[in-house]
Amino acid sequence: MRFQLSAIILLVASPIFLKAQGPRVEGSFDIVPPKDILVECVEDYNDLSVTGNATVIGADDNYKLSHKDISATLNDCGEGVITRRFSATNSNGQVVNADQKIQVIKKGPASVQFPASYCAPGPRHPKDLQPDKLPEGYGRPIVYQGGCNNLEIGYEDEVMKKEKRFWILRKWTLCDPCNRGQCETYNQLLAAEYSPVFGGHDFQESGNNTGSFDLLQNRPNPFSEGTVIGFVLPKTAYIHLAVQSVDGRVLQTYEGEYPAGYHEITYNTQGRAGEGILFYTLTTPTDKATKRMVLTW
Predict the structure, then answer these.
(1) Closest Cα to residue 171, out of 125, 220, 208?
(2) Residue 92 lies in a domain
(3) pLDDT band at 275 (very low <50, low <70, confident <90, very high)
(4) Are 129 and 192 in contact (CB under 8 A)?
(5) Same domain for 115 and 197?
(6) Regarding predicted confidence, which is higher, 280 or 44?
(7) What mean pLDDT is reported for the chain?
(8) Which domain holds residue 76?
């Protein structure tokens, strides 16, 4: 009985390991997509050497292989998922498709080198020390990491003069909305011998220095209730300042005639619920500028 029982068990179990093998259809082929992959947003995920390519099996040498991204849901921080479809076509016109998922992530906060303090040689005017006119390493912050971020970088100048010299305390602010809205500040000191005439205009200290048209980064940023928007007018002008949501809806406008110089307007959320990215645009008869700010709750 023991021998017969074992035979029965063998007969019942053996079909589990059997696999039917049918004849291969002539001209049939298949495509194997690259593995789903995780990449950083700073990488070139359009480069197949980074994300991988598909493999075609069973086709003749005349097949054509192509790919396209059929969906890409990336947020403002450059993170999200891309679906890439690979298609192979053989000489008979048969087409097979296979998809790959590419998840794009951001690692850590941005890495930034702020400009060093600088003592300019020879007589100068404060306009000579604008960031784009300074030597390398003294002008603007350099972003080494987080290039896919929407970083907010701005500065404000406090100008001081004593006898034949002047100083500029340049206050840099960098905000990373993709890193919990964290902001970093840095003070840069600039100094030079004072040149009394520059382009026909004499030097004036902060509070009266007209300078050129400029829309400054709001402060604080991000903000939850109210924030200050600063701007500089080179001459008296009628201004229009509009605050808009990311979908273009106007939330608040300010209008009026302002004299030359630096001015500030305080924008209050007035109890509006929500959070996210807002834009503010300053328009005059001759100039226009737009910046972005982050509202948090």
Answers:
(1) 220
(2) yes
(3) low
(4) yes
(5) yes
(6) 280
(7) 78
(8) 26-105
